[in-house]
Specification:
Radius of gyration: 18 Å
Largest sheet: 5 strands, antiparallel
Structural class: mainly beta
Number of strands: 11
Strand order of the largest sheet: 1-4-11-8-5
Helix content: under 10%
Strand content: over 45%
Number of helices: 0
Shape: elongated
Order of helices and strands: EEEEEEEEEEE
Distance between the termini: 21 Å
């Protein structure tokens, strides 16, 4: 599992990391990391986001692996912003039949910042 190209890390991140599951995808996260994920419901004002589907946690010395998830582990994050990705065009074409269809799609996302792993 490699962090995707839409992630940013801060320089002061410790050696701990976790693998979380959200939106049908798995992400390798560290404290201080910012990443774009599938759109989440907006949290209450001042409340953070808690991820409870944790597959793996490591503190640099040892690792805990879930079966399939770790029950006692959580990862907290804060919502930075929400938006839509760039438009993707879908074009269908059948030759000799005058069949053409053009569609566009913009996937919504939530940008989050990982606060702590415990």
């Amino acid at each position: 599992m490699i962090a995707s190209k839409n992630t940013k890390k801060t320089a002061s991140a410790p050696n701990s990391f976790a693998v979380i599951e959200t939106g049908g995808k798995q992400y390798l996260v560290e404290p201080g990391m910012e990443l774009k994920i599938e759109k989440l419901p907006k949290p209450a004002k001042g409340a953070g986001i808690k991820f409870d589907k944790i597959l793996l946690i490591s503190d640099g010395q040892s690792a805990k692996v879930g079966d399939p998830y770790l029950k006692e582990a959580t990862v907290t994050a804060e919502l930075k912003k929400e938006g839509k990705r760039d438009k993707v065009l879908i074009f269908r074409y059948h030759s000799k039949t005058r069949y053409r269809k053009k569609k566009g799609h913009r996937q919504p996302y939530s940008e989050i910042k990982i606060k702590e792993i415990y």
